[in-house]
Amino acid sequence: MAKEEMKIGEISKPRFEFRSFGQNFDEAAKRMARLSVPVPEKVWERHSDEIYIVSRTNDINNTKIRDGKMDIKTYVQTVDGLEQWNPLMKAEFPITKQILLEQVFPAFQVEAPNLSKDTYSYDEFIAIVKHHSNLAAVRVHKQRFGYMVNGTICEFGNVFINGAKIATINSESTETEDIKKTIKDVGLEGVENINYLQAIKRVIGMIDKPLANE
After folding, report:
1. Residue 120 and residue 209: Cα distance in Å, rounded?
2. Distance of CA 46 to the CA centre of its chain
3. What is the CATH number of domain 18-204?
4. Which of 9, 47, 63, 76 would bridge 84 by S-S if both were Cys, CB 3.0 to 4.6 A apart?
5. By the 8 A CB rule, do 162 and 138 touch?
């Protein structure tokens, strides 16, 4: 069976991903840029503002809010050290009490608070999160530079987590062997592979562990 061709910005079947966070990936980023084939101008540089909802009791569901829409992805498996995630749910604000009780808070793996209204606005939902002892709403600004190496979708980026600046670099594809070749080619062998959920928890102190190359 022919492998699927990766296209930046388009939905494919679930991908595997290598990603790391730290203070300096300059050399790997330079190699990634030089090895990349030409990519669409729209992904040369992208900026986004997002809110991640992190939970002390959950490490398998990744929740973020962007442009008034909530997106939850769930961890599926790890193959050759590479994580695979699938969409779990998508919802727009205002969001119904039923969705919050049946999908959102179960994804956080926390007990839902008493909800007295039928629907909740974005601001009302964030207020609930901020008052929950096991949840945190974290502001994340991303500046991402897109590339494509060995048929894998790659990026180097600057990430501001509640204003704290760190760097991230990644390679993702439906094909694990292509990712592993890219990791070797750009000089990232032996570097810790973690996801946004884990990185954010470390930065805000929810997990007592430094990032890969601090």
Report:
1. 35
2. 15
3. 2.40.320
4. 76
5. yes
pTM over 0.85: yes
Q: What is the residue-wise DSSP string for 145-156?
A: EEEEETTEEEEE
What's the CA gap between 213 and 61, in Å, rounded? 25
Q: What is the pLDDT of residues 114-130, one digit of tens each?
A: 999 999 999 999 999 99
Tokens 């986004």 belong to residue: 48
Give the list of residues 6+ apart from residue 82 with CB closer than 8 angstroms, or none.
16, 17, 18, 176, 179, 180, 193
Tens digit of each residue's pLDDT (9 = 90 or more) over 58-96? 999 999 999 999 999 999 999 999 999 999 999 999 999
Length of the chain: 214
Q: Tell me if 210 sits within 8 A of 202, measured CB to CB.
A: yes
Q: Which residues pair with 143 in a beta bridge?
A: 47, 158
Written as one letter, the residue type at 66 is: R
